[in-house]
Specification:
This protein is mostly helical. The protein has 9 helices and no strands. It comes from Flaviramulus aquimarinus.
Length: 180
């Protein structure tokens, strides 16, 4: 039995659930934080979304069918929670999702948790110009170095479509960086 399968059995067991959940947190918390952070940009927002995501995982672990890896399932929840967060923020502020992204990038400049330089800030600006799907694909490939096979499970899209999205995203980012 793989470690993930063993962990899943424990997560679904009432007697071991809390202990197994702590192990799950230790295993995936940092990777999922950075995945979320790449989407929402802000440290505080990323922490909020991460917490909501883990609450959903905890409450819904018994509904996990095992059609994909546990990791992929959690990444999908993290991605959806991040997008939902941006949509709600846009609605609350009565602005578009793109404007939410632009605000987040402006706030990065004053974010004490952002350790990037001018070049990284420019890259974030370029990424924000991409359509949502291309942003996700670019972030997952470029920053998180996920394999297309794993991304395919998470985003429920073919590997070929993901490769095309990544290629297009890279070209758009190169153009943006050249012209700005």
């Amino acid at each position: 039995m793989t470690d993930e399968a063993q962990l899943l059995v424990q997560l679904k067991s009432e007697t071991h659930k809390d202990q197994a959940f702590k192990a799950l947190l230790a295993l995936y918390k940092e990777r999922l934080y950075w995945h979320i952070r790449n989407i929402v940009k802000s440290h505080d927002d990323a922490n909020d979304v991460l917490q909501n995501m883990f609450i959903k995982v905890y409450k819904n672990i018994n509904n996990f069918k095992g059609d994909s890896k546990l990791f992929s399932w959690m990444y999908r929840i993290a991605t959806n929670e991040s997008i939902t967060f941006i949509n709600k923020k846009a609605k609350r502020l009565q602005i578009s999702n793109e404007e939410v992204q632009n605000l987040a990038i402006l706030n990065l400049k004053s974010d004490v948790y952002f350790e990037g330089d001018t070049i990284q800030l420019k890259l974030q600006e370029a990424i924000a110009t991409l359509p949502e799907k291309q942003q996700l694909v670019f972030n997952m490939k470029y920053f998180e170095d996920l394999k297309y096979k794993d991304m395919s499970e998470i985003l429920e899209t073919s590997e070929g479509a993901l490769k095309a999205s990544y290629h297009i995203a890279v070209k758009k980012i190169e153009t943006y960086l050249t012209n700005n």
